[in-house]
Design a protein that fits this description.
Two copies of one chain form a homodimer.
Chain A (H helix, E strand, L loop, with lengths): L17 H5 L34 E2 L2 H6 L6 H8 L10 E2 L4 H14 L1 E6 L18 E6 L6 E5 L4 E5 L5 H7 L4 E2 L12 H7 L16 E8 L2 E4 L12 H5 L8 E8 L1 E2 L5 E7 L2 H12 L7 E5 L1 H6 L8 E7 L5 H13 L3 E2 L9 H22 L2 E7 L7 H20 L4 E10 L2 E11 L5 H18 L15 H7 L2 H14 L17
Parallel strand pairs in A: 2-4, 3-4
Antiparallel strand pairs in A: 1-2, 5-6, 6-10, 7-11, 8-9, 8-10, 12-14, 12-15, 13-14, 13-17, 16-18, 17-18
Chain lengths: ~525, ~525
């Protein structure tokens, strides 16, 4: 893993974080150490790389264990139980693109499945091989490719290697006064390539928030050759090559580097929070803001449950946070707050230059959540998040259906009510991206199965309501049934044909996007 | 052709337009009438539709002649000479999507090439069949599908049929206070489907200017079935289905309708023009504006030749026009003008609420140009436009190379210097979209061949300079050599495979994007 520049991570979790304490002693909490991990780590590896590639691969149990899972609830739970049935056979760490080419060539010839591994933050089974039809499974860890290779200050773009985590490039770009300004919750724990391959959404929640729009050109190693698109601010020449690889989740090729569009580091910043008594009013306020053309740097909405859980509004009420980051920003912030007032909101406090405290409270809770979840899992608490996007006209029905039907699933599975909270992580002129959190009491030993059942109910509801099965968490293996429903059938035919052309041996991330038989 | 709502066309060319006068008498100017058109219109048609589809098709010579060409210079010239060698065999006018399905089914079975025809404004040979390998050629005229089928006022979106020209939907959306606000130069003469299929750029020149970003979902008839994507404000579920069809130029399917993202009709508007003595200063000013985050509604730059030709700055100098259209706009316009001043510009006059006169002069020249060109062609004047996009760092070299090398080609082909002008039609934070106009003296009878040679030199130069072969004019048949160079080879493989999956008989617009043998 590349060195993380802590300074570059702008929102350091506070040091008293509960989750950090929970994690502080592995042995005391019954977390299995590597020697105690279950099969197949104790058995022999099924395939070994040829001598020419031996220096790139490792079959050490610790390496294999570390590359077995992503960070879904069921991953955390299975790791906790020492279940390593899905471990890859060797793990490879290419040092450059040439190594990636060589590794793919060997894998294609030896029928070895290749599972690209960025930083392992997938919550959808994206890095877990389940197909069982290949002669072996190679985890292709891109974390050696971390450099910013070139900076074009004039066009504000940089060529960045795909294995770079969030903070590294930010530190390297700071001397130029530039930033990628793409801050997913997993900022410090996700790679550029992983974000491109999964169409990740950033923390800045309006305008160009998806990494798709920030990619100027991509370099992708496929078994059929290396694809490099031209750097272009825009083009009308045929379907966009980049858009085929964006979202391909390692099934069409391995992204090795990208020219990314950058921004000047913001010189001004102001934010405000507004409280609403009625959630529907808050939704209307957010819609007005999203359609205003004001493009706030940020616009988050927490429903009453989410506001209470994160400590932002313990007394109830929905909370809207807005943020502006251009030129002199006070005027624009005032316009945003005025829009919120028109829809029944009350500013929580005066806006201040360094961010208001409700926003800070929420941000802190937001960043702590993944740590906290690992701790909760140890107490058999089931926590699940799923996110979607829908047009504004469909949101009220979707919100109601999720509460009603996922709530019923939680009661059926756990025998008790759980918490179902919602926030808007991103808003577009034509609709919000709601993010739901479900927290419920699990039974020790059955957590993963219970999670599966709740998750299936959630997916079903999203599909019925015409909402996307995922807005930024990717499809992976876990969302495939919902994806199969969302994707138009002729497009599925075209995409499968494209895969067969680029990956004729069917070795690239089998089981993701396509059923594993698609090879 | 749908009725054009003249009221909805906001910039009516003035009535004294020279081009209109030139066109006023066909007979007097030697323009051939239908009976005098050359082969194969006089011969029999090669294929005829089955009885069940007979009511949809026509082989009348006037229909066939009207569907033979687009609006490229060489199209205008060949039409002028009465050369109809490329005429389609029958012309079909489906009344609804079901008709499109039936026509494709017949064509696939009868080996009839299908060339989709919107309003025939292609300048890249997009509607001209040249392959010669099929048993016949059907021109599929979508102009019967013109309705706005549904409006979602809350999400600001409408479901619009693909054959609608620009003004029709605008008139139907006005009562809702909504606008698509996509105004290509061909606004009144291009269909929604044609713009989607070619990734058209609109007149509003920053932020979401390409129609790609305005499309919420598409319905596409392919020989392998009808593809309909879900309406989504955003999605991270696999590669975007819409992005495969956007830019596919009729080679993968026929777009029949789309949900389009709309905007509120602007309530405020202000514009200003700024004059620069030095073109490089003007380029820097535009870059600063494009990277400012101010997102002006419009930002056009004319180089000295273009400014003089359009009558905006007869005394020389580069002219920058900016426009703002949100909430109270004066403040934002002042910020834009201040940025231009910082780079050496002088405001041409006071900004006024109804647009300044330099902007009006330019707009009028802009709208008149296509009419004027038809007149110029009759005087054997060669006029060619080509447009591109490149990152800012490459623009100075590109500008110089085009002037030097295309200038040399003009001298070689015509024996005299021509005019080579440039303007930025669109600007992005990472680069401009320069649009070049070449005007040169042709020799009667050789105009098309001379044009071909100049065009080839221009394409060559764009490729060498790493600029896109087209920013919004599409690839068609004329840009295919340049496109083959721009497109990464593995992507070409994938796209060809996708085409074979969707169009196994290879009937869809043969020769566009792919060589005609790709079937």
């Amino acid at each position: 893993m590349a060195a993380i520049d802590a300074e570059a991570w702008p929102w350091r979790p506070n040091s008293s974080m509960a989750a950090a304490r929970i994690c502080s002693s592995r042995r005391a909490r019954g977390i299995p150490l590597v020697p105690a991990l279950r099969a197949p780590l104790s058995g022999g590896v099924r395939v070994s790389a040829p001598a020419t590639l031996a220096h790139l691969v490792s079959s050490a149990p610790a390496e294999r264990a570390a590359h077995t899972y992503g960070k879904a609830f069921r991953d955390v739970v299975r790791a906790l139980y020492g279940d390593m049935a899905a471990a890859p056979d060797p793990v490879a760490r290419p040092r450059d693109e040439r190594d990636v080419v060589d590794l793919l060539e060997w894998a294609a010839g030896a029928d070895v499945a290749v599972v690209p591994y960025g930083a392992g933050s997938s919550v959808v089974g994206g890095v877990e091989y389940r197909a069982g039809e290949h002669s072996g499974v190679l985890s292709l860890d891109l974390s050696g490719l971390v450099r910013v290779l070139e900076v074009d200050r004039v066009s504000r773009a940089a060529r960045i290697q795909a294995g770079a985590l969030g903070p590294g490039p930010e530190a390297q770009l700071r001397p130029y006064g530039l930033t990628l300004r793409h801050f997913p919750q997993s900022f410090a724990f996700s790679t550029l390539g992983g974000r491109l391959a999964t169409r990740a959404g950033g923390h800045y929640a309006t305008l160009h928030t998806h990494i798709d729009d920030l990619a100027e050109s991509l370099r992708v190693v496929t078994p059929a050759g290396v694809s490099e698109s031209l750097r272009m601010p825009g083009s009308g020449a045929g379907p966009s090559p980049d858009r085929l690889f964006l979202g391909s989740e390692g099934t069409l090729g391995i992204i090795t580097e990208a020219w990314m569009r950058l921004q000047d580091r913001p010189s001004h910043k102001a934010s405000a929070s507004v409280v609403f008594e009625r959630f529907p009013d808050a939704v209307e306020a957010v819609r007005a803001i999203a359609q205003s053309g004001l493009h706030p740097a940020n616009c988050r909405l927490l429903d009453p449950g989410e506001a209470a859980l994160s400590g932002v509004a313990p007394e109830g009420g929905s909370v809207l946070g807005v943020e502006s980051a251009h030129g002199p920003v006070e005027g624009r912030l005032a316009e945003l707050v005025a829009l919120a007032r028109e829809h029944g909101g009350s500013p929580a406090e005066e806006a201040s230059a360094d961010g208001d405290s409700a926003a800070n409270t929420w941000r802190s809770a937001f960043l702590r959540m993944p740590y906290l979840r690992a701790g909760l899992a140890r107490m058999s608490v089931i926590s699940e998040t799923f996110e979607t996007a829908c047009t504004w006209d469909r949101f009220p029905a979707l919100y109601e259906a999720v509460h009603r039907d996922v709530g019923a699933a939680v009661r059926k599975v756990t025998g008790a009510s759980g918490l179902i909270n919602c926030r808007f992580t991103h808003v577009y002129p034509d609709g919000p991206a709601p993010y739901f959190t479900v927290i419920a009491a699990g039974r020790r030993g059955s957590e993963a199965a219970m999670w599966d059942e709740i998750k299936a109910a959630a997916m079903e509801r999203l599909g019925e309501q015409g909402a996307t099965v995922t807005h930024h968490h990717a499809v992976g293996r876990d969302h495939r049934p919902g994806y199969a429903r969302q994707r138009p059938e002729p497009f599925a035919l075209a995409l499968r044909a494209a895969k067969q052309a680029l990956d004729p041996a069917g070795i690239l991330n089998p089981g993701v996007l396509f059923d594993a038989a698609a090879r």
